């Protein structure tokens, strides 16, 4: 098992999602973030799309047990995400509802399954074209 590949995809995914969140916050404005439903939906769509692309690439590149790698990346990502949320809640005394993580977690699971499947299918089509 290549832990460096897991770490690479994990850090890449985390930094991409943070960058997209920052850009979306700058566009909407910090004061409107918590009250704007369009920001929340845009944030979900951007996060899902980015996660889907990352897991598709992982499924394409990882030839041995791609689902195992994808689930490990997702598990470590969510462990870090929930840990950072808990630290922010404790240190900054920000009250966070646990349900706030439900929709992103469900979208992330869909992105893991669908993205890895798409990556595997792209890789198999590439090799079938080469064999002909």
Q: Would you kindly provide a written description of the structure presented here, covering whatever features stand out?
A:
The chain has four helices and no strands. The protein has 132 residues and is mainly alpha-helical. The chain is 81% helix and 0% strand.
Short note summarizing the structure:
Helix content is 81%, strand content 0%.
The helix-strand sequence is HHHH
Number of E-type strands: 0
Helix segment count? Answer: 4
Q: How would a crystallographer describe the biggest sheet? A: none
Mean pLDDT: 83
Strand content: under 5%
Helix/sheet category = mainly alpha
Helix fraction, binned, reads over 70%
Labels describing this entry:
single chain, 132 residues, mainly alpha, 4 helices
Give a topology summary.
Elements: H1 3-28, H2 37-61, H3 66-91, H4 102-131
Helix pairs in contact: 1-2, 1-3, 2-3, 2-4, 3-4
